[in-house]
Amino acid sequence: MPKHPESNTERRFSRLTELLAGWQPLWQPAPFMYRQPPWQSAYRELAEMLRQLSDDEVTRLQADPLQDSLLRAWLPVEELADLVRLAPLAAENFSLPPAWGQHVGGRKWLQIEAFARHLQVSAKDSLLEWCAGKGHLARALARCHATEVAALEWQAPLCAEGRRLAAKQRAAVCMRQQDVMAPDVVRHLSSQTHVVALHACGDLHVRLLELAVAAGSAVTLAPCCYHRTQEAVYRPVSARGRALSGDFGLRLNRDDLSLAVQETVTAPRGVRRRREQANAWRLGFDELQRELRGEDRYLPVPSLAYGQLPERFEDFCRWAASRKGLALPGAFDLVPFERIGWQRQAEVARLELVRHLFRRPLEIWLVLDRLTLMEEAGYRAQVGTFCDAKLTPRNLFILARKA
Ligand SMILES: C[S@@+](CC[C@H](N)C(=O)[O-])C[C@H]1O[C@@H](n2cnc3c(N)ncnc32)[C@H](O)[C@@H]1O
Predict the structure, then answer these.
(1) What distance in angstroms lies between residue 154's CA and the mean position of ligand 1's atoms?
(2) Is 132 close to ligand 1, i.e. is its CB under 6 Å away?
(3) Is the CB of 43 under 6 A from ligand 1?
(4) How far apart are the first and last CA of the chain?
């Protein structure tokens, strides 16, 4: 074990690294890519138990993998549940006037309200929203704190709409069209700046943290989409994260990172059914392509936006085959392939429950990496949740201020 000072963050970070690294062979392979998961021969009873689970149990464990899980006979479920439990952050108890939320989606507005309740603003802070979209958060904060808020966004139409909404609501928001990845973004940050970001994606929020550290700015960040990054292999942002990953042999690629954001707010029944159908058809096509190519290997097929799935399995197969440069015979009995697709879909949903156990631990690990970066730069930093996971599963919050 590496030597380190035993702070709570450090203990959590170190143990999570060890568990994620140790169980990589079980959670990294995505079961839809294999006829049988690579870990099956070593965990035959686990695979058998999963295959027997009822649909209701599968749905329950997909939504809440660490709660009353039968997988605890094989995997460290209780310890993982313990490691992802975060103390609630201090919050003020106020509501924003509902009229302020005009032009903002209902769920987004509740997230903004929760963000505002947890934000710790000091009198000297100059607020700056990072990747602001239409500046909904900036507007709420400008009105809440009766102060001017600057907002950076690179899309001109969003800036224009942000200006229009701010003028309409008489909110002191200064929308600035700015690419936050461009070198000149540094002109917006100083030691007086308090950068706020709600659901800024991968590289965008890592850049925010690195530039905030360089300028000494305070940060309040709800990170999102860790897999939206240029790097194919994840390089931990903190020195400690790099050392722990090296010591324990944790190696994450971009696909692994997307597991951290796989949890979504439970979709309505119809949407879930449509998603299951898309998965079953993909797996049915997978069987077909293995036969057509005479090669027993998974072939990735591009994803289709929701609502673009063709009406019939045959049309889906023709579309997927054309994308992969495969020729489908004119007359072909696809019924057996569709049936196998549905069977594999049910099986994959069960085997994936192993991966789901590591979803939140991975997300917390990524957030601890960011928190540790700030601590290493002499910041006092905290992590916790700012709203219920039902409002958004991306409910983690980092607050950091130069000590
Ligand atoms: C996920 S949205 C978040 C918007 C807002 N914070 C919210 O919660 O609704 C990300 C925003 O970042 C903007 N964005 C993406 N890349 C950017 C860049 N390089 N510079 C500035 N803004 C960027 C997008 O245009 C989009 O409005």
Answers:
(1) 7
(2) yes
(3) no
(4) 30
Q: With respect to residue 205, please indicate whether it lies within any of the assigned structural domains.
A: yes
Dist CA 24 CA 251 (whole Å) = 9
Instruction: Output the average pLDDT for the chain.
Output: 94
Q: Which residues, in sequence order, are CB contacts of 306 under 8 Å at separation 6+?
A: 271, 274
Whether residues 140 and 107 share a domain: the answer is yes
Closest to 147 measured CA to CA, from 138, 159, 156: 138
pLDDT of residue 3: 43
Q: Same domain for 105 and 218? A: yes
Q: For residue 223, report the distance from its CA to the centre of ligand 1, in Å.
A: 12
Q: What are phi and psi of 10, to 5 degrees?
A: -65, -45
Give the residue, by CA position, lying nearest to ligand 1 atom 15. Answer: 131
Widest CA span of the chain, in angstroms? 73
How many separate domains does the chain show? 2
What span, in angstroms and rounded, lies between the C-alpha atoms of 175 and 162? 7
Confidence of residue 269 (pLDDT cuts 50, 70, 90): confident
Mean pLDDT score, 191-215: 97
- 331 and 316 co-located in one domain: yes
Are 181 and 163 within one domain? yes
What residues make up the domain containing 345? 30-72+266-357
Instruction: Give the pLDDT mean for 288-303.
Output: 92
377 Cβ contact list (under 8 Å, min separation 6)? 213, 402
Top mutation candidate among 136, 153, 159 for ligand 1, by most atoms within 8 Å of CB:
153
Check residue 72 and give its pLDDT.
97
Say if residue 113 is in the same domain as residue 217.
yes
User: How far does the centroid of ligand 1 lie from the alpha carbon of residue 133, in Å?
Assistant: 5
Q: Output the pLDDT for position 4.
A: 45
Both 140 and 227 in one domain: the answer is yes
pLDDT digits (tens, 9 = 90+) for 128-187: 999 999 999 999 999 999 999 999 999 999 999 999 999 999 999 999 999 999 999 999
Do 179 and 239 lie in a common domain? Answer: yes
